Amino acid sequence: MMNQRGFIRPAVDRIPAFGGVPTCDTAGMAGQAFLHLNECPYPPSPRVVEAITHGAAGVNRYGEPRPQLLAERLAQLAGVEADRIVIGNGSDEVLAMIASATLEAGDVAVAPTPSFPRYRISAAIQGAQTRLVKLLLDGRNDVAGLLGAIDGATRVVYCCTPNNPSGAPLEPEEIAHLCERVPADVLLVVDEAYAEFHRHEGGVDALPALARRNGPWASVRTFSKAYALAGLRLGYAIVSDGAIAAALTKVKLNFNLSRIAVQAGLAALDDKEYADGLIAAMVVERERLAGSLAAMGFAPLPSRANFVSFDLRRPAMPVMAAMARRGVLVREWRDPGYETYIRFSVGLPAENDRAVAALRLALGEA
Ligand SMILES: Cc1ncc(COP(=O)(O)O)c(C=O)c1O
Predict the structure, then answer these.
(1) Strand pairing of 341-345 and 331-332?
(2) CA gap 191, 94 in Å, rounded
(3) Phi, then psi, of 109 in degrees rounded to 5
(4) In total, how many domains does the chain have?
(5) Nearest atom (ligand 1) to Cα of 233
(6) I want to staple 113 with a disulfide (CB 3.0 to 4.6 A). Which of 66, 132, 140, 306 is the partner?
């Protein structure tokens, strides 16, 4: 469609309109199983709830533009200085800050596909191009492909481990290879939104490999998944040096975080045992769900996150719609070439059973 309003930047005008997504607050959604957003199906720690309740009476005051205590706690856990932590309104905002600080028209970002859409959308907002590199067959990011797509116009390379929507993590050697080969004047962004699940199962932290990199990097993380705080919006990046953190801080909104989110984040970190329990429960359920799907003849991709994807071997969209009519929301991959793939987030045990039953019926219908 033509730009109806001359004042909208052409780069923004070219981005497809936001389609919306049903959430638990959307009208008519009571009693549905929300297995389409990779949320944690369990409530947050009681200590988080207490911090939120306690903080409510203080919201007449702004929070800190750069929350010091939370930055210090995250820095201590990561073994870095606090000036290398950037905190955002969800890791989504951190990814937007990264694009805003690094990309402009004529620049190129390199990113895996299918993967988290924010990489290409935030680049498009900047008027930059994204060179998309297809996943390997097992769902891993294609490291050789990502490296091969870099040229002189490339400013940022994204990777996602474990990757959403496939679930596959990168091997430690692959992360090391990226750290070594992404040029020293290109920002390497490692999206680790689901890393807590991977580490729970013995996966290695990307930080030691990143620390050895001779070039800039950012490890992007979130409280939305393993800490069950999706609705509060809290994410962060650990970056290679204070200058990058300072640049990201320049482009962020001033009071981007609510005081309550910061207080809740601190409480969540204080109750690691609770988060560990949630992660363990979700991993057990993920394997049970994957087992049920395998028993139906599907081959779930190996996942180290709180979701499972698989090839339905028929168009996913009608199956997804038929499941939604039965009150089970799952997500098709959407990306060109992957129209038969579908992703189930791990829900409560009864929700996962309901999803499998709904899939069986939907297959008979769709
Ligand atoms: C890979 C990945 N990165 C980042 C995000 C953004 O999460 P949030 O903004 O809730 O921190 C998501 C959300 O689903 C994701 O899957």
Answers:
(1) antiparallel
(2) 10
(3) -110, 145
(4) 2
(5) 10
(6) 132
Ligand 1 atom with the shortest distance to the CA of 234: 11
**pLDDT given for residue 108 in this prediction:** 98
pLDDT above 70 for 276: yes
Expressed in angstroms and rounded, the spacing between residue 52 Cα and the centre of ligand 1 is: 22
325 and 234 assigned to the same domain: no
Reported as a single tens digit per residue, the pLDDT across 90-101 is 999 999 999 999
Residues 54 and 91 reside in one and the same domain: yes
Query: Which residues, in sequence order, are CB contacts of 317 under 8 Å at separation 6+?
Result: 332, 339
Q: Is the CB of 232 under 6 A from ligand 1?
A: no
Q: CA of 312: how far to CAs of 17, 79, 142, 299, 337, in Å? A: 28, 43, 23, 9, 13
What residue has token string 């309740």?
53
- Hey, how many other C-beta atoms are within 10 angstroms of the C-beta on 203? 20
Whether residue 163 sits in one domain with residue 138: yes
pTM (global) more than 0.90 = yes
178 CB within 6 A, ligand 1: no
Tell me if 196 CB under 6 Å of ligand 1: no
